[in-house]
Automatic annotation (TrEMBL):
Lineage, broadest ranks: Bacteria, Bacillati, Bacillota, Bacilli, Bacillales
Keyword Transmembrane attached: yes
Domain of life: Bacteria
Organism: Bacillus salipaludis
Transmembrane annotation, as ranges: 12-28, 40-56, 68-83
Name of the protein in its database record: Glycosyltransferase RgtA/B/C/D-like domain-containing protein
UniProt keyword list: Membrane, Transmembrane, Transmembrane helix
Length: 115
C-alpha cells in the first residue's frame, strides 16, 4: 500500500502479511512458554527451518535457467530432532511452522519463474 507525500513515497506491507507476522510471533511466544528452560530456542528452530536453498541448478542452451529449491533448514532440524531423542512437541510445532513459511517462500520463487 503506497502512501505518497509530494515526491516521497512510503510503501507499507500488505495487511494480510502483517496479520500473519503477528500470528506467527504470538504462536512462537506461546510455544516458548511450554519449555522450562532456554525458551528462546523455539525462535531458533523456527528461523533455521525457514531456510530454503537451490538443490539443483541447470542452464539451458536458449538462455534460461532452472533451479530446484528445497527447504534445507527444515530437513536439518528434522534430522537433528530425530538424532537428539530429547525433542519437545513445541520444538516440532515451531519447525513445522517454519516449514509452512519455507513452502510459502518456495511458492514465491516458482511464481516469479512462471509469470
Amino acid at each position: 500500500m503506497p502512501l505518497e507525500f509530494g515526491n516521497t513515497t512510503i510503501h507499507f506491507p500488505l495487511i494480510i502479511n502483517f496479520v500473519i507476522f503477528i500470528a506467527i510471533i504470538y504462536l512462537l511466544w506461546r510455544w516458548s512458554k511450554e519449555l522450562e528452560n532456554r525458551s528462546f530456542t523455539i525462535f531458533l528452530y523456527f528461523l533455521i527451518s525457514t531456510y530454503t536453498a537451490p538443490l539443483y541448478s541447470r542452464s539451458t542452451s536458449n538462455g534460461g535457467q532452472f533451479e530446484l529449491w528445497f527447504p534445507l533448514g527444515f530437513a536439518f532440524i528434522l534430522i537433528y530432532l530425530y538424532a537428539n531423542k530429547k525433542n519437545h512437541p513445541a520444538k516440532m510445532k515451531a519447525s513445522l511452522l517454519g516449514l509452512a513459511v519455507a513452502i510459502y517462500k518456495l511458492i514465491e520463487v516458482y511464481r516469479d519463474l512462471l509469470f
